[in-house]
Write a structure and sequence with these properties.
alpha/beta; Aspartate Aminotransferase, domain 1; Aspartate Aminotransferase, domain 2; seven-stranded mixed beta sheet; globular
């Protein structure tokens, strides 16, 4: 029997289809790589994956997961303080803290959970400020902090240090002031102005939190993230990041910071107290990915070279990708339906890249977001550029 909710949802879904903004799932028949077989499509080049270092199917990473599966079993069975923490989690957290330059870290099932957990650190006497373009997980984490603790919250204009300075100046009565920003902003591919942000925050005694999910493994000469990129490793108070992107462990997120932060989150953070720990196989694969990155920093250099090559190629064709030096290369189209249509035509040409529109990005700024991997060969990138040229001409974009 159809109920009122199903009727309303059905009407909305029909409207999405009429407007050309309905999303569909594409099914892959193998692991993430530069090329993969897609059900009903055959082989396609993937330009929409967070597999920045190409480690999703790296033999060492996969083997580590298999070994841990045999040794520790399939699941963690409960939360860590109830049924015990396996030694693998301790090794993983030490490795991640070493990578991002903090004294310690604490793992969660996802970086979304890690960002939500930050609400635990705040009280009604505190202030938390968020960059205007921060990821949805940070936005929801701040909403949770406001609801749970009644702390004061606010947003500052994207990468605008004058606006941030003014908002911190007006909050001198707050006991703890926390500023949260993405390191690399996922829809723009822009990078936080970390040197100036740290200067402003130090002036006001504010705690700096950087979500480095799209920067870990990508930025800096050894892939240690935004802080390394600016020569400021160890200067950020709290780093959150993920194993689900460049480190390719499959899933998992972290809060990395002081011993006090990590221990307090163990005591009080609801995503830690009420969610199972990472499965051992996932933790082991993540640990192997970190060790692989440490042993093969040239993989980061290859990624950065590929990014420069593809961005330059798009410009030569007449596209205007947003400026940047990250692995995220957005091509602004404007209309949501047009961006989705472009992604569909590119898929017809054997290139899988996703179109994004409202509400993921503001109205009128829909885009095709290209994401480059160290696993891409020059041949992969050139073939993808030929597809962009063909589709761009067909849609009168170039």
């Amino acid at each position: 029997m159809t109920n009122a909710l199903d009727l309303r949802l059905g009407e909305d879904l029909a409207r999405f289809k009429r407007e050309g903004v309905h999303k569909r799932l594409n099914y892959l028949e193998g692991p993430q790589a530069s090329r993969v077989r897609m059900e009903g499509r055959g082989e396609v080049i993937i330009l929409s994956s967070n597999n920045y270092l190409g480690l999703c199917n790296e033999p060492e990473v996969v083997a580590a997961g298999k070994t841990a599966f045999d040794r520790f079993g399939a699941g963690s069975a409960s939360v860590r303080f109830i049924c015990g923490t396996i030694t693998l989690h301790r090794e993983l957290e030490a490795a991640l803290a070493r990578l991002v330059g903090t004294p310690t870290s604490l793992s969660f099932m996802s970086c979304w959970n890690a960002n939500e957990a930050l609400a635990t650190l705040l009280t009604e006497d505190d202030l938390v400020l968020s960059d205007q373009l921060n990821h949805a997980s940070i936005i929801d984490g701040i909403r949770l902090a406001k609801a749970m603790t009644k702390c004061q919250t606010g947003v500052y204009t994207h990468n605008d240090m004058k606006d941030l300075d003014a908002k911190l100046s007006s909050a001198s009565d707050r006991k703890v002031k926390m500023v949260i920003t993405d390191g690399v902003f996922s829809m723009e591919g822009s990078v936080v102005n970390l040197p100036d942000l740290l200067e402003v925050c130090r002036k006001h005694g504010a705690i700096v939190v950087v979500d480095d999910s799209h920067s870990t493994g990508v930025m800096g000469t050894r892939g240690r993230g935004t802080a390394e990129h600016f020569g400021l490793l160890g200067q950020v108070d709290i780093v959150t990041t993920t194993l689900g992107k460049a480190l390719s462990g499959g899933a998992g997120g972290f809060v990395a910071g002081s011993e006090e932060v990590a221990d307090y989150l163990i005591q009080r953070a609801r995503p830690q107290l009420f969610t199972n720990a990472l499965p051992a196989a996932v933790a082991a694969a993540g640990l192997a990915a970190i060790r692989y990155l440490e042993d093969h920093p040239e993989r980061v250099g290859k990624l950065q070279q590929n990014c420069r090559h593809f961005r330059a190629g798009l410009r030569e064709l007449g596209f205007k990708p947003l400026d940047g030096e990250t692995a995220i290369i957005p091509v602004i189209i404007g209309d949501t339906a047009a961006a989705i249509r472009m992604s569909e035509l590119l898929l017809d040409e054997g290139v899988f890249v996703t179109g994004f529109g409202y509400p993921v990005v503001p109205q009128g700024t829909a885009r095709v977001r290209c994401q480059i991997s160290a696993a891409h060969s020059t041949e992969d990138l050139e073939e993808a550029l030929r597809a962009f040229a063909k589709v761009g001409r067909r849609l009168a974009l170039i």
